[in-house]
UniProtKB/TrEMBL annotation, chains A, B:
GO MF, one annotated term: DNA binding
Keyword Transcription regulation: yes
Any matching Pfam family: GntR
Listed name of the protein: FCD domain-containing protein
InterPro entries named in the record: GntR_C (IPR011711), TF_FadR/GntR_C (IPR008920), Tscrpt_reg_HTH_GntR (IPR000524), WH-like_DNA-bd_sf (IPR036388), WH_DNA-bd_sf (IPR036390)
Upper taxonomic lineage: Bacteria, Pseudomonadati, Pseudomonadota, Alphaproteobacteria, Hyphomicrobiales
SMART domains on file: FCD, HTH_GNTR
Protein keywords: DNA-binding, Transcription, Transcription regulation
Ranges of residues in domain HTH gntR-type: 7-75
Amino acid sequence: MRALSKTNLADEAIEAIRGDILGKRWAVGEKLPNEASLSAMLSVSRGTVREAVRVLVSQGYLETRQGSGTYVRSTTDAGRPLTMARRASLRDQFEARLALDVEAARLTAIRKTPKTVAGLRRLLAERGNYDGGDQAAFIERDLAFHKAVIAASGNRAMIEIYDFFSASIADTIAATLGKDIPEPDMQAHADIVDAIETGDPDEADAAVRRFMAPVLAALDRMILS
Amino acid sequence: MRALSKTNLADEAIEAIRGDILGKRWAVGEKLPNEASLSAMLSVSRGTVREAVRVLVSQGYLETRQGSGTYVRSTTDAGRPLTMARRASLRDQFEARLALDVEAARLTAIRKTPKTVAGLRRLLAERGNYDGGDQAAFIERDLAFHKAVIAASGNRAMIEIYDFFSASIADTIAATLGKDIPEPDMQAHADIVDAIETGDPDEADAAVRRFMAPVLAALDRMILS
DNA sequence: CTCATAAAGTCATCTGATGACTTTATGAGT
DNA sequence: ACTCATAAAGTCATCAGATGACTTTATGAG
C-alpha cells in the first residue's frame, strides 16, 4: 500500500552523507572526498552527489569552497530546524496531527477547568457547520477549535508542532479538496468537549478518532485521484 | 565581511524561484514551468535548475512528482524553525513524544511486515535490560528501538518530529535522572512488538502507554519545575 | 460512451566536457 | 638556503546531450 522506502537516489545520498556527518565520520572542518569519489562511493552520478551536497549545504551541515573542496560545518543536528517534515505527504502530516489531537484531548480532559470548557464550547458554536460558503474560512474556524484543544492541554511543545503543521495542512486542504469536504460531524466535535468536561481521557481519545476517521478516508480518496 | 554579490548561479536560481513563490506568482498546488523552461528563463543549465529546485523541495516550498511536474507546496515562509518546542519542558517534550509513540505503534501494527517485526525483535534483544552500566548507552539503545517503531510506521513527518525531540530528550534524561532510572520494563516493550505482530492497534496503543506511564511518573518525581 | 493503448510530457539519472578557482609543486634568481 | 613568481594538479561550478522511468493526455476500436 504505502511504500516505505520509495525515495529517489538524491534523497538516499542526502541521508547517507548526513548519516556519516552525524556519525562523526569526518570532524568539523574536515574535508569530504571529492565529488567523483563520493559519486563512486554512493554509486550515483556526480550530478546526484551535487544535488545532495547542495541540500546539506542549505541545511548547514556542509560548506563548499570552489577549487578547494567540501567541508563539514556541523556534526550535530541540534540547531536543525524542523523543516523537512513539512515536505512529508499530506497523509503523513495528517496522521501526525491526529497523534497530537488525540493526546492533547486526553491531557485536556485531565487538566480541564470550567473556563477552558466554556471557551471550547464557544469556539465550537462559532465554527458551526459548513454551509457551503467560504470553504477556507470554515477550515480556519475548524482549525481554531482544534488548536484551542491543544492549547488547553497546556503542552507548549504540542502547540508549536501543531501550529507548524496546521498552516500547511489548511493550505493544502483548501487547495486540494475542492467541494468534496467531509461531513462537518458536529456531533463528534461536541463529544470531544463533553468528554473533556467529564474528564474522561479515553472517551476524548475515541471522540477525536471518530472525527478524524472520515477525514482521513476522504483524503485517501482525493489523493488517489 | 562576506561579499554580498559573490554567489553562485544555483544560489541565485534558488532566490529567484523562492521570490516568485513568496510573491505568489504561482498558487499553492500550481505547477511550475518544466525544468527546460526554468533553465531558459533563468539562463542557467538544467542541472543548476535541478539543484535549486531540490533545495526548495528540502525547504518545503516545492514538491516534485516524477513524470508530472514540479508543484508549489507553500507560498509562505516555510523555513520557520521550531525553536520554542525544543525549549519546552522535558515533561512537555515527553508527552509529545508519547503522542507519536502511540500513534506510530498503531500505524505500524496495521502496516507491519514480518521483516519489520523481526527487526524490532532484534533491536529489543540488543537493548536488553539496564544492567547498571553505561546509562547513556542504554538510553541510546532504548531510543533506537522506539525510533524503529516510528520508522516502521512509514510516516516521514512523525520520524522527523521524533528525531527532533529524541536527541534533547535523551540528553536531558541521562543528565537528569541520575541512577533513579525506571524499571526497564522489558515486558511492556515485548508487548508492543507482540501487538504489532498480531496487528492489533488498540493493544499496541495500550502497551506503549503501559511502558510510558512509569517513566512519566519518575519524571514528575525528579523534576518539579 | 468506455476503456485499453499509444503518444507526449516531465522528472530522474548518467556521461562527458569545459571553465573557474584554490592548493601544491617547481625552479630560477638571489 | 631562501623567496617568490609561475606552472601544474586538484576540485568545485556549470553546461550540454542522452536515456530511462513515470505520469498525463490523446487516440481509436468496440
